[in-house]
Every structure is written in structure tokens, then in C-alpha cells.
Amino acid sequence: MKVYNLELRCWNIYSNGTHPIETTKGFNDALQWASENGYTTFSVPPGEYLIAKGDQGAENSRINLVSDMIFLSSDETIFQKETNGYEIYSLLYVGPNIKNVTIKGGTFRGDRETHDYSQKGPSTSGTHEWGNGIDVVGAENITIDAVKLEKFTGDGIEVKGSTVTGSTITEASVEAGGIDDEGQPVGNTGKIRTKDRKVTNFDNIAYQEHRNIHFWLPEGIVPGSKVDVYYYRADGSFIKVDKQIKYYSGESIIPQGADYFRAVFEAPSIKNFKVTRMTVDISRNVVIKNADIGYNRRQGISLVGSDGVTITNNDIHHIGGVAPGSGIDIEPGFYQGRNTIITDNRFMDNRLQIILAYGENARIEGNTFKQAIKGVGVYSYKEFTGEVTVKNNSFDGSTLTLQSHNAEVIHNQFKNSELKLVGNGSVLDEAELEDTSLSIGSGENQKISNVAIKHNGIVPGVLYLGDTPVHIENLDIQAQTKGKGLIFGQGNNESMYNNLTVADVDKKGTVLPAGTYNNCSFEAGELTINRAGKYTMNDCTVKDTGKLVTVLSTYGKPEVLINKSTLEITGNIGYGAAVYILGAQNVELVDSKVFAINNTYKAPLIKAGPYGAPKPTNVFGFSIKNSEIRTKAGVPVIDTLNAGTDAPPYTIRDNKIYNGTLHLKANDVNVNNQFIQE
After folding, report:
1. For the chain, what percent of residues have pLDDT higher than 90?
2. I want to staple 41 with a disulfide (CB 3.0 to 4.6 A). Which of 70, 102, 527, 637 is the partner?
3. Residue 324, preceding bond cis, omega within 30 degrees?
4. Is the pLDDT of residue 458 over 90?
5. Per the database record, which ranges form the Right handed beta helix domain (predicted)?
6. Are residues 168 and 106 in the same domain?
7. Are strands 292-294 and 148-150 parallel, antiparallel or unpaired?
């Protein structure tokens, strides 16, 4: 390692916070000289260096780093951006084709507190949200280590791409038809193909280094369609095909020896067709670690065209002032934003903590998220695809919402939060939730396992189940809802709940969503079934002091099966019934036990039909078979007398009834029931 210790006087650089023009020029001249003379470390002495505002976005407005260099500063080194009124600026710039750079140490400070926000350019919005600390633009193998970035009008760090070259393909350059797998033109209704090498060639010298094609801004295509790209040598011989390339984020790699390509688009005709083909340069293999990034106005870190970014062991805090206000935002626009690792960071009081707007493949692991006022912790949109993993994180006042499909949420802790899984195939495993609501079942085939929820009624609602199938295994809810609600949602006939435990100190009761419940336990007050659907309980326990299950027909005709389960009343039933069936397509109680050994009220344990004057029935099927029912002497255990004027026969058979009596209508089937007095 060859170290150049920066000689301030030699380069007319001032370390007392003055002379920004001379200082900025001196840094850039010195870096070029050091690179040309074989130095690999550029060491900056302590001091405060004022970096010129220069011309907006120009080289004289920033320090421009060079390849193969460590830019080294101490904790006593400050780089201060000169106060300006520009909408766009950067303090340190790592541009296209720059490789193998490390930025280590130092404080980089923006002009947020003194900035002039009044100016607006002809093609900008006037929000002044693009004043950045470090810009990495189309660079490769970049490490940012142990820096402090604060008070910028935009982002602490922006990692992004740039356009290299391209052309516009219009209807003049296409014809009807497709191309077969041998690269030969064929007739194909509903497809059009390029015909003009002038707009699809690789003559530009830029293609010697940049070997990619993207397709942007399509017009006249079939919505949701993709592009097939065929490559040819200069003599017209076929090389290969890349099929089904997405618009915008999709990429086709140009093979060696290719002279031009032909593309096939799904379009009804060539009329009004247009697409831009671009070659881009995104930033690759960037590491941001051990940094303190805070008090920036727009973002902590923006990834706007990147592949392979690792963000680890940073403090990212107090970001906000102009939208979005994220600690980290992956929002690559037309570029790619893929393969991002975010580990072991500490996020504190950012307006938003992490946003995955679009892109692909992100791992968020070992981070802590904390917000004094509950806000967005991690949010992924459905446009963010590929592997999305959220693992071993702690959320305190920070929510997690994942619209991405097949997202994995593993071994996380939540406090005073919200957890929403929206995407299809989402997995939630090994989670601890305190005063945190869980919302699932909005996407298909979600799997939930090994989740413990403790809820103290600080916010309403503990569990929301949407109308798509879910599979739940080992979910334990211990709540004190304070009457704010426990379980909400319709559920789905195909949903499966295994080893679900629900306990509510207040016992205010809850709605039971549709699905099959295996080996579940409820001590939450009355369970209400009030929607159409299939409800099955196998080997379950329902316990309460007074009410157990009420089945209504308010929103349809539910079908209910209670099998090999135990229903237990520990006190007096009170008015109504322990199991009160007011409306259902069918209710079956089979091979189960109903206990009310402390009940002294004369209200029935199980009642089909309302009190009051007879009405047309809303209970279209009802049976109790092979079950054991225990109560006090003289208490009616089953009452069907007021089931309705046109109620069909109900079946009560092969049951053991201790101490109780039956009050059945005339057409009911009463067979082989044993009455035992104790």
C-alpha cells in the first residue's frame, strides 16, 4: 500500500473552513496526481474543508474520486458543503467507470440549515431534494466505511445508475411477424419484429465495456407482455435468443461476437408502436458499513440503480423533511435494484425506515427499528420481486408490511407495532409480538407458525384474517383486549389452524373466521360465527364462565362441525344458552363433551332457535351424536322447541346426558340417548 499524506500547502487546500473554490480544486488535482503516481491511499489530515458549491452538478462542485484509491480521513476531519441554492448537488462523487474505491472516516456535512430553497429550475420540481453527501453513479467495488453523513438537503448516500447509449425503435423500424428458435423470421399474428439494423446495432464504442440492453417507455404493446431478443453476427448468422425480458427492469446481456439484435414484441400492429432501447451502467458491489447517517432531509441511503449492495452496522436516524424520508429506499426507476443485503443496522426515528418500492432480492437481517411515534418500519410493494427475507430483527414502534410474494419473515420481535403479510406465499415463523396486530390472509397460501402474541389492549385488534386460505401452526395469543376486539375477518373454508391458543383476560368474546381448527384452545369469551362458510373444530377446547358459541345467520348460512372437542362452562349460563344456534345451514356436535357442572340456571346448555314467538326457521340442519353432556339436575341440556315453524327434523342420538333433560320438537329424532342421574 502506497500512502500519500495530503500536503495542503502544495495544493492550495485550506483546512480552516475557508476558500472553497481553491480547496475543492486542490483536492481534485491532488487525487489525479496521486493516482497517476501509483498511490493507493490518499490520507487527509484533520481539519475543516469547505467544498465549493461550484456550478450545479459540475465537477468543480464536489470532490471527484479516482479508481483504485482509499480516501482516508480521521474523526477530526470535516468536509462541509458550501451554502448554496442548488436543487441538485453532491459533496463527494464516485462516477461511472470508477472502480475499487474505499472512503473511510471523516464527517461529511451538508448545508440543510442554511440552504436557499427558493430557486427552481425549468425542468425540476423546486423541492431541493437532491443535495447529497456521497453520490455513487455507475461505479464498481466501492466501500464506504466509518463515515458520518449529516444535514444534507437530499440523501446521505445515493447509489445509482446512469444511461450509456440507446436508440428509439418506432413503427418505421418494425414489421409484422415473429422469429423462430433458429433466428429465422416467421409469420406470427399478434407479434411484430425489428427490421432495421440502424437502430439495433452495437457500433457504439460504449459496447466494448457495457454489454446490456434494456427496453423502456413502450407504446402500442400488449399490456403485461415481454420482449424476446435475438442476437446475430455481422454476417447475419444467429447466436442466441433471450426470451421474455421485462420492460424497464429486465436485462439482456449482449453475447461476445454480436453485431446487432432483432427484438420481437407482442403488439396488435405496428401502428403507434414505439420503445426505447437503452444500455445502462448501474453501481455494483457497494458496501456501506460502520457509518452514522442522520438528520438528512430526504433519505439516509437511496439505491437508484444497483446490483450487490451491502449495508451493515450503521446508525441511520432522524431522516425526514421532504418525501419519502426513508432510512433506506430502494427505488431504482428504470434501472435495476437487486441483490441488496441490509444487516445489523440501527434505525431510529426516521419518517420511514426501509422502503422496497421495486427491484428484486433483498435480505433484511439483524437490524433494530425504533420510532417514538409509531410509523413505517419496513414496507415492500408488490413490484419488489424475488427473494425477500426479513430475519432476526427487532421492531419497536415500527411496522412491517410486505406485499411482495413469497416473502419470508423469520425470528423477529415486534413491540407496539403492526405486522401485515399481503403477498401470496408469505411465510411467518418464530415471531414474538407484543401489543402488535397481525394481519394475514390477504394473499394466497400464506403459512404462519410458532408465533406468540401478548396484547394489552393498547391498540384495537390482535389478529385479522382475510378471505384467502392460510395455514397456521402453533399460534399463541394471550390478550387483555379491554373490549377493543380480538379476532377479525371472514377467513376461508380451506384455512387450517393447528394448535391455536386464544386467551383473553377480559373475555369479551370474538368472531371466529371460517376454516378448520385442530387441537385449538379458546378461553376468550363467547365465540361468534356470523358468516357463510365451513367451520370445523377437531380436538378443541372452548371454556368460559357463561357463553361458549353463538351461531348466527346474519351474513349467510354457516356449516359448523364440532368434533371430539370439549365445551366447558365454569359458571352460570345466564340468559340465552351456552351454545346458541340462531341461524345455520347445518350444525353438528359429534363425539364431544359439554360440561356445565356449576350451572344452576334453567337456561338450556344448547338451544336451536330464538326466544319469542315462532318464526320461519333459520336453522336448516342440527344434530348431536355420541357426545357426553353434564349439568345440574333439572337443567335442559338441549332445546329445539322454538327452532321455527318449518324446521326440519333434528337428530339427537347416542348421547350420555348427566342430570339434564331434553326439550325437543315433535319431529326431532331422539334415539338411544342415556339419561344418568348423579
Report:
1. 88
2. 70
3. yes
4. no
5. 279-414
6. no
7. parallel
- 152 in the same domain as 238: no
Calpha distance 232→241 (Å, rounded) = 9
Q: 173 with 115, same domain?
A: no
CATH code for the domain of 115: 2.160.20.10
Answer yes or no: do 168 and 150 share one domain. no
573 three-class SS: coil
Query: What is the three-state SS of 266-280?
Result: ECCCCCCCEEEEEEE
pTM above 0.85, yes or no: yes
Q: 58: domain range?
A: 3-160
If asked whether residues 473 and 532 sit together in one domain, one would say no
CA-to-CA distance for 505 and 494, rounded, in angstroms? 30
- Tracing cell 445509482 back to the chain, one arrives at 160
Within this chain, do residues 651 and 678 fall inside the same structural domain, yes or no? yes
Q: How many domains does the chain have?
A: 4
Q: What is the pLDDT of residues 301-313, one digit of tens each?
A: 999 999 999 999 9
Angle at alpha carbon of residue 354, lines to 478 and 319, rounded to 5° = 110
Give the residue from 231, 261, 281 where a domain finishes: 281
DSSP class of 30: H
DSSP 635-652: -EEEE-TTS-TTPPP-EE
Residues 130 and 208 in one domain: no
Cα dist from 374 to 326, 329, 345, 401, 638, whole Å? 14, 19, 19, 13, 50
Summarised one tens digit per residue, pLDDT across range 23-74 is 999 999 999 999 999 999 999 999 999 999 999 999 999 999 999 999 999 9
Q: DSSP readout, 480-511?
A: --TTS-SEES-EEEEEEEEEEEEEETT---EE
Q: How far apart are CA 42 and CA 30, in angstroms?
A: 9
89 shares its domain with 188? no
Tell whether 648 is covered by a domain. yes
Q: Is 219 helix (H, G, I), strand (E, B) or coil?
A: strand
What is d(CA 85, CA 218) in angstroms, rounded to the nearest whole number?
Answer: 36
Would residue 347 count as lying in a domain?
no
Rounded (10°) CA dihedral 634, 591, 499, 595? 10
Q: Which of 507, 524, 541 is the last residue of a domain?
A: 524
Residue 444 counted as domain residue: yes
Which one-letter amino acid corresponds to residue 201?
N
Give CB contacts under 8 A, 24+ apart, made by 7-16: 8/45, 8/47, 13/49, 14/49, 14/50, 15/45, 15/46, 15/47, 15/48, 15/49, 16/47, 16/48
Rg, Å, the chain Cα set: 34
